[in-house]
Amino acid sequence: MAMKFVADLMRKLARWQFHLRDRSTLYPIGNEDFASIIVQLERMGWATYARYGGMDAGIDYDCIRLKRQGIKLKCEWDPWDQWSIEGPKMAIHEIAEQLHLAAKEEWRWDTWGTIPTGKSAAITREGPKHHP
After folding, report:
1. Which domains does the chain have, with CATH numbers?
2. How many CB atoms lie under 10 A from the CB of residue 65?
3. Which of 100, 104, 61, 99 is nearest to 86 (CA)?
């Protein structure tokens, strides 16, 4: 019971920080689409400055951090929701417009653990597709 309270409190604080810092997210993004998007972001001048190197990298979690002109983006992956790209609202909306994606004004983990079917949707160029 206490752990759930602590986890909920931490999630609320992170959500509050997300909105206070005026951030947006592109998610969920499928693996194949992310590979294409990361190449396009590099062509737009975004450079990788950090990559998660834990023993579970690419298995349970992954993270790539990009930077351009002092603006930072956080790309996160997990096997259930696949990729997301989070950053300042202005930068995310610019990327969304250039790459024809939909930006969300919510934190990636806002709905974590609330998908009753165990399925998640991934954004692709063809529209949403569901994964088991």
Report:
1. 22-106+116-131 (3.30.160)
2. 16
3. 104
Task: Classify 19 in phi/psi space as left (phi over 0), alpha (psi -120 to 50) or beta.
Answer: alpha
Residue recorded with tokens 């990327």: 95
Of the chain, the end-to-end C-alpha distance in Å amounts to 30
Mind listing the pLDDT tens digit of every residue in the chain (132 residues)? 788 888 777 777 766 666 676 888 998 899 999 999 999 999 999 999 999 999 998 899 999 999 999 999 999 998 888 899 999 999 999 999 999 998 887 766 555 554 433 334 444 334 334 333
User: pTM for this structure?
Assistant: 0.73
